Amino acid sequence: MKSDQLWIAPRVRGAKLPVVALESTIIAHGMPYPVNVETALEVESIVAAQGATPATLGILDGRIIVGLSEAEIRRMGSEPGVLKACERDIPLAVAQGRNAAVTAGASIAIAAAAGIRVFVTGGIGAVGPHASRDFDISADLPAIAGYPVITVCAGAKAFMDIGATLEWLETQRVPVATWGSDQFPLFYSRRSGFSSGWRVDDAEEVASVFAAKRRLGLDGGLLVAVPLPEEQALPEEVTRAAIHGALEQAEAAGIRGKALTPFLLSKIKELTGGRSLESNIALIKNNARVGARIAAALGSMDLP
Ligand code: PSU
Ligand code: MN
Q1: Which residue windows are transmembrane per the record (predicted)?
Q2: pTM for this model (two decimals)
Q3: 138 known ligand binder
Q4: Measuring CA to CA, which residue among 101, 112, 66, 39 is closest to residue 286?
Q5: Pairing of strands 19-22, 53-60
Q6: Is 164 labelled a binding residue?
Q7: How far is residue 154 from each of residues 3, 104, 108, 176, measured CA to CA in Å?
Q8: Could you report the per-residue pLDDT of 67-95, keeping only the tens digit for each?
């Protein structure tokens, strides 16, 4: 993607502080209004409070915007008909002058074009629960593997196939760190039963491995999975029961493709009596804190 095709907000273009990119699918399709808008604005404040500059990404009227204003975030979160754009949908949204929220993968592509090195989301899309039969592997994964951006998340969304996702990331040369834990998290819950093999306890270590990857001339990104603090996480059995119920309902209703993730998120919310949404809000804020610290650590390094 060419950087001259982006609308970079002046406060992002002129930023003296390191920039952290944020996505908008979580706003338009991942959470209900108005908590979606409130959360997006709070996440921006958290990034700013940690000494970094937040830049929420999205497409409005066909323009790819790096650094949505508060009013633009509100549009994203409340207007009907906002597309969910993964990377392949960006040209369509631009050519047709559409409003589109960008997924993690699309955000990573835009961040790379804008020269932003750190991207924060809630949970990435990954190898789907029936991938061996329906080939549903999120376009988030090849973006993480292909662009020089560090993605900070709470793991893959809980209904993904975590084991297969970690295998995919290894095949595609993505270093995967787990933050302060030996286990890869399960989005709303702290433990998935899988290890990534690399535990980190500080932002400098993440930054130094990314810097080494750049100096070695190796393309692509790095994934950091941050488990929620115990007090805010859902017990693993609550998450697993809700996933099971939600997947059954999706199957019965024949939900497929890009509609699946928003459907499952909202069913899981119903099945947990709203607790999953609370965890989702807590985890994105937690990830923002970690992402801003990594951006600050990177900011003091010389990166090729
Ligand atoms: N994280 C959340 N909620 C979300 C998403 C991430 O906490 O809704 C979005 C991201 O934009 C991610 C997308 O890219 O879900 C994945 O969709 P799919 O599984 O269809 O690729
Ligand atoms: Mn998918």
Answers
A1: none
A2: 0.97
A3: yes
A4: 39
A5: parallel
A6: no
A7: 29, 13, 16, 12
A8: 999 999 999 999 999 999 999 999 999 99
Q: Which of 57, 76, 103 to mutate to test the pocket of ligand 1 (most atoms within 8 A of CB)?
A: 103
24 lines ligand 1 (CB under 6 A): no
Protein fold of 3-299: Indigoidine synthase fold (3.40.1790)
Q: What is the CB neighbour count within 10 angstroms for residue 69? A: 12
Nearest of 156, 191, 114, 158 to residue 275 by alpha carbon: 158
Smallest CA-to-CA distance from 226 within 277, 173, 284, 281 is with 284
Taking residues 253-258, report their average pLDDT: 93
The predicted pLDDT at position 31 comes to 95
Distances (CA, A) of 179 to 47, 98, 131, 201, 228: 18, 37, 27, 6, 10
Residue 16, SS3 per DSSP: coil
**DSSP track, 143-207:** HHHHSS-EEEESSB-TTS-HHHHHHHHHHTT--EEEETSSS--BTTBS--S---S-EE-SHHHHH
Residue 301: pLDDT band (50, 70, 90) is confident
Tell me the residues surrounding ligand 2 (ion) with CB < 5 Å.
136, 138
Cβ of 25 closer than 6 Å to ligand 1, yes or no, is yes
Query: Ligand 1: which residue has its CA nearest to atom 5?
Result: 26
SS3 category, 232: helix
| For ligand 1, mutation pick of 23, 88, 255 (most atoms within 8 Å of CB) | 23
Q: How do the domains of the chain map onto residue ranges?
A: 3-299
229, 286 contact by CB (below 8 A): yes
* Angle subtended by helix axes 236-253 and 260-271, to nearest 10: 130
